[in-house]
Amino acid sequence: MSLENKTVVITGAAMGIGRAAALCCAKAGGRTVLADIEEAGLKETFGDIHAAGGEASCQVVDVSDARQVEALMAGAVEDFGRIDALINCAGILEGAYVPVDELDEAVWQRVMDVNLKGSFLTCKYAAAVMKEQQKGVIVLLSSGAGVRGGSSSVAYGTSKGAVHGQAVVLESQLSPFGIRVHAVCPGGIATPMKLRNIAQAAESQGESAEEALKQAEAYLGDPEGVGRILAFLVSDDADHLRQTVFTR
Ligand code: NAD
Fold it and tell me: Is the CB of 166 under 6 A from ligand 1?
């Protein structure tokens, strides 16, 4: 599996699954365009790729802002001439353990803006470039939370179900242009988002967060495990794969 001569745009690259995906894509020889709202982590990922001899660029981007996303894709084309793949990992989990009748409308909207609108905007501006090329791969991070059920947050679970729907709709719209679209649904993965969620769950039950985090080590997956799958998915070796991929 090689990503030689491929340009991969990765959002959410400052930490967690996005960072792991960026490192795996770079290891496979891809040029990575790293984006995140969190500058310090973004620079760290960029620095690690650079230090290992990889080619990368990075940009602070809020995926819910159309102009910033448009500039991200334009910058990728300016720096590397094309966009072979988009892996959209940027996401937030808010409103966990809040019953629907108590959920704040502003929290709902924020989750939708980042998770769902962010997926729409990154697809919108990446697809424009990929259609010109008549080739590309788009991977959206959904979740079992919104596809199989069982989320701690009404807003998060709903947004992830909608992201899955977006991937299914876009697959048929974009496949005539040689663009493959996948939704990836990771299981529980040890990232800052998931670890925060586990600590919060314990605290909301009056239990020890520290103990819950220790127990979680036994069942959570490693971000690199998903990162490797994401890197494979955007490679030509995955060109016979279609639709949704579930991971542990
Ligand atoms: P994380 O919180 O560890 O990383 C998310 C990244 O997104 C962070 O670097 C954050 O700064 C960035 N981000 C947040 N808002 C942003 C914005 N407006 N613009 C740009 N970047 C922004 O989370 P993670 O666990 O690595 O999650 C990555 C993706 O995988 C998310 O979409 C999440 O919903 C999904 N997911 C995670 C799990 C899991 O168990 N960790 C399970 C299923 C799905």
Answer: no
